[in-house]
Amino acid sequence: MANSNLPATRWRDIAVVFTAGVAAAIMLAKGSAAAPAVQQQLNLQLAQIGWLMSISNLATLLFGAISGQLGSRFGLTTMIKTGLLIMTLAALASLLSESFATLLTGRAVEGVGIVLVTVAAPALIAGLAHSSDRSMAMGIWALWMPVGSVCIMLLSPTLISWWGWRGLWLFAALASMAAWLLIQTARPGRAGENPAAQSPGDFDLSALKAVAPWLLMAIFACFSFQFFSVFTFMPIYFSNQLGLGPEQAAKVVAIIPIFIIPGNLLGGWLAKRGVEPWQLILVPALILLVLTQGLFNLDDAGISATLLLGGYGFVLGIIPTAIFIQAPKLAKTASAAAPIIGLGMSGQGLGILLGPPLTGWLAADGTHWQACADLLSVVLILLASIALLLARATREPNPL
Fold first, then answer.
1. Which of 342, 380, 368 is nearest to 115 (CA)?
2. Termini Cα distance of the chain
3. pLDDT tens digits, residue range 389-400?
4. pTM for the whole thing?
5. Residue extents of the structural domains in the chain
């Protein structure tokens, strides 16, 4: 495994890299937080809202796997810095957008920066952690998306009231710039401490000949399809179907990423106690079947909605931790970790690219939510099935 001979886990540097991931999550999740405001101001259909959320992952789908080669050639730290800079400039340029087409183009460019950060950061964190702490470190990395999502969802009412959807874009740009400045000063890849973080190295694709990394890619696709479809349209569902205002709907839906955080931590704790990653994917997927149907059949935004949103986020949060713990385990050499993680990120890109637009298309004018719930249930059944195949591929057949 990568850098198992490090004298100690470099937690401070891991925290710095984690902030880059949070900035990427803010950049990605702002599409969901801004959905009601963008829909109103630009008069968009739900399918178009889905594309605004998903198009930023086109780059992740196309370049996720090969971006690992960029990290090998130019260094993971350089890759993160470049990604943060691209995100900042793209978000700032989008402030001038007056149409769906120009805003969509800006989101696509943001996606290039997002994929650079989200592929390089976990590979770098794996190298900064001692082998005994790697599962915990990867579990912490899995928090990047919920932490960033909570930040932007809770701040969105204030930002939108200040400058509409553009307030979210400006905040995301400032967050990316702040992370860029922080990683400049911390220099987590100093030569002599973690050569893989800063120096060029070999690019080992041998692990991709096995079936397990491809199953992990499919798992990430199903997970992101499910999560980002729910996360994109829940604010609109609560606004249109249950009568909440856009600002109140954003606050309510923030319950999901808030509860994903303890779910992530529970996944890391269970993994440390010996529960296998495939088990941490299979069981939550089956529970989510019930919770997803409940979310799309609410009568009001009362206590039952709060419990369902919280339960959905908590159970869902276990899955990404399992994915990020499993990925380094499949790497036989240090240089194989980035390609495996990159392949997984391509799966994430595929899921986000397909999920929100297809879910929005099924929702039509916002009256066919049951069709959305049924589609997401099929995806969860597929996720559970692939988890069983992963158990066989990794030769870990023991039940949970």
1. 342
2. 26
3. 999 988 754 444
4. 0.77
5. 11-188+208-393
